[in-house]
Predict the 3D structure of the following.
Amino acid sequence: MKVAYWPGCVSRGFTPELHGSMEKVAPLLDIELVPLDRACCTGAGVIAEHSQELADSLNARTFALAQQVAGADLMMNICSTCQGAQGECQERLDASAEYRAHINENLAPEGLEYQAGIANKNFLWVLVEEIGLDNLKSMVKRPLTDLRVGPFYGCYIVRPTDRLGINAENPRDTYLEQVIETLGGTTVEYAGSQKCCGFPVITMNKQASLKQAGTHLADAQDADADCLVTPCPLCHLNLDLQQPLAGPVVGRSLQMPVLHLPQLVGLALGLSPKELGLNKHVVKPTAVVDWSTSVVGAVGAGAGGW
């Protein structure tokens, strides 16, 4: 499967282990990544607050670049915040030919034009809807036996449900649980799995942001999770990078590893922790990589390491 690949800003800046692990995992899933290197930031909803036309022009430009990738089956991102921001823009662009034509005037100097209807999917959706869970299961070389994983969706990939296409046919708000189970892991239920991580308010009210993150981490810890997994690098930043600061805010000692989705998939497909960049995390995922504790089953000698 060939995809026009939009890694986003954060995965190549603050969380390079996300972009790196996706590049390692893609060939194992028979995904050919064609990076959209000329694409720019989605705006993450912030630019739209100041100029909707600018935000829509930026995203229409990315869609137009994706449509130029010959033979691509769809456009894929690895950031659920990007998914949300792009989905909102695409909804407006596709709803009005007149507005779309106006936005395309802004793209014309680059010789670009967005045609309505491109399929844009987060990696999580690609796993379930394009690769398929049965196919994914057949690729597993190292089942995540007894690994207790808490899903953390964040905001932008679970609401609004209509825009995100969440329905009985596509229960996308359960896909993380389905993937965890397919990889051989155990899903841990806890209160904050579909709540905001707190990142959007961190520059305005850091205390509130840290309290949100700390509460979710503590809830997962109380549920005996070995780690969390998220499809959003911004959530990862608040839950991992800010975790040492969040603990004191909620009055707890927190030590909860937070994995990017491609990292969890990569572990099950046989890649080593070092290949997946697990050594880059602020909170070291000891529970995941300490093979001597048998948290992750069926690991061959020498497969671990940082």
Residues 162 and 285 are 36 Å apart (CA to CA). Strands lie at 2-6, 32-35, 74-77, 120-122, 148-151, 186-187, 227-230, 258-260. The radius of gyration is 19 Å. Confidence is low (pLDDT under 50) at residues 295-303.
